[in-house]
Amino acid sequence: xxMDSAPVxxxxxxxxxxxxxxxxxxxxxxxxxxxxxxxxxLAEGNRYFWLGLDLGDRWTDPxxxxxxxxxxxxxVADPGHRYGQDTIDxxxxxxxxxxxxEALHKAxxxxxxxxxxxxxxxxxxxxHHALATALQEAGCSVVAxxxxxxxxxxxxxxxxxxxxLHRGGGLVxxxxxxxxxxxxxxxxxxxxxxxxxxxxxxxxxxxAGGRGLETVGFADCNDPALFxxxxxxxxxxxxxxxxxxxxxxxxxxxxxxxxxxGLGPGA
Length: 267
Description:
By secondary structure, the chain is of the alpha/beta class. Helices cover 39% and strands 15% of the residues. It has a domain at 89-260: Rossmann fold, CATH 3.40.50. It has helices at residues 12-21, 32-43, 62-72, 90-109, 125-137, 178-189, 202-210, 224-231, 251-260, and strands spanning 26-27, 87-88, 113-116, 141-142, 150-151, 154-159, 162-167, 170-172, 197-201, 215-219, 237-240. Strand 7 and strand 8 (170-172) form a beta hairpin.
């Protein structure tokens, strides 16, 4: 059962108002200087910022990364804007949620095998948990816990349908692709089928997309790699949003997404 009662799915306009009010989109907390630093790091080939994708030498100019992020995420277009506030276009967020809903609807219709994972357990876990529950109720199989898998000095844990990384007595925030790599390698070793759909974020999504798996995910405006992956067709959908606000703020968004996918109450 879901952890909390799901709210009634809002209209598009009501959701847009909520996302801007809670700073999931609109004027987000992530600063312009942080965004530009990450775009530069990606362009300079820092693999940490590639989130498990292989970007080769195709994105070596930070200006090209910024241009893509304007298009896909709605950050400020002016390259002279170097400091202060940056933005996520709420209409792009909801458009991407609609595209993600199509992938979820297809998975439910086909009783697909689905894998869910998050590197933001304090923010996005509630979203992934709700999606896992709804997809299971619709007839999908969710990839089950795997024992004795480790990455980045921690243990890969599975809770309520969602893989996360545990280290030092708690679930941790991670951008690393290594935990997903360990899960997929274990599936191969055990002769288990690969997932038909991966729902994830950070390196969990990047690694899966880089392995050729159909992948949808959530990404902040300082995580350009997943938007690059979407532009290059390695990632099916990247939803732009602030990926670490208080978990309950995501509930209306989750309700909207499930309703759009035909997975909400009464669907």
